Amino acid sequence: MAGIFLGLMFLLSCNVFAIRFSQPVKLGDIAYYPVGDVEIRNALSNNGVVWKKNKSDSFITYKSGVAIFGNGNNVIYVHYGRKDKNSKELANYGGKEISNTFYFMTGYGCDIMELKNDEGIEMYLLHGHGADIRGEKYTILAKMKDGKFVQYFDTDLLRKKYLGTSKDALNYIWLSGYSCNGDTFIIHLKKGFDKNEKSYGEFRFKWDDKAQWFGIEQVVY
């Protein structure tokens, strides 16, 4: 009986102490315009080279720079810009040093969000959106205790592995929205591009407390 009781207590404690995610809180966003300039919104600070601004200074775009987003001591740096017309965009997220960042180009804009959890792990959700067939993009970064950033996943890589590269819009599977359910972060999938697009399934990212990492499961309805 004592063994059974202890076993039940262990199972209960595992459920009680499993990580729980809150809905992400938006910190700000960045927009890449076709002509090459960049707009930064709601950053804590932004050290950028101005591209152009209007007379009232209410709208300013930049050529390149480094912006900081966050709350309190939890911050994420964004290194942005374009060197010239033929170069790769600079769209790196993570630490102060470029060597401690991850490239995440979205095609147009990127919402920068804090993914809060009850274990106090400093996590950031990046939600990219554009005007091409790729649809939405997501990645989750985290800052470790030593200040180093890690990337848990990038949906560009998941798309190639799980969804293929079909260019048929009627059969194209695209990423559409996200949610949190306890210890699992979910990205929802749609099929087709008409106004009555069908739900196709979802990617489930369940947190593994022992590994301190997300598992990945694709579910098709």
What class would the helix/strand composition place it in? mainly beta
| Relative helix content | 10-25%
The biggest beta sheet is recorded as: 6 strands, antiparallel
Tell the overall outline: globular
- The string of secondary-structure elements, in order, is HEEEEEEEEEEEHEEEE
Strand content: over 45%
Instruction: Summarize model confidence as the mean pLDDT.
Output: 85
- Number of strand elements: 15
> How far apart are the first and last residues' alpha carbons, in Å?
42 Å
Order of adjacent strands in the largest pleated sheet? 2-1-8-9-10-11
- Uncertain parts: 2-16
Short description:
The protein is mainly beta and 221 residues long. It has two helices and 15 strands.
Main attributes of the structure:
221 residues, mainly beta, 6-stranded antiparallel β-sheet, 2 helices, disordered N terminus
Explain what you see.
- The protein is mainly β and 221 residues long.
- The chain has one domain (20-220).
- It is built from two helices and 15 strands.
- It has helices spanning 2-17, 155-163, and strands at residues 25-32, 38-41, 45-53, 60-71, 74-82, 89-94, 101-103, 109-114, 122-129, 137-143, 149-154, 173-181, 184-191, 198-208, 213-220.
- The strands form three sheets. The chain has a six-stranded antiparallel beta sheet with strand order 2-1-8-9-10-11.
- The radius of gyration is 20 Å and the shape is globular.
- It starts with a helix and ends with a strand.
- Residues 2-16 have low confidence and may be disordered.
SSE layout and pairing:
Blueprint (H helix, E strand, L loop, with lengths): L1 H16 L7 E8 L5 E4 L3 E9 L6 E12 L2 E9 L6 E6 L6 E3 L5 E6 L7 E8 L7 E7 L5 E6 H9 L9 E9 L2 E8 L6 E11 L4 E8 L1
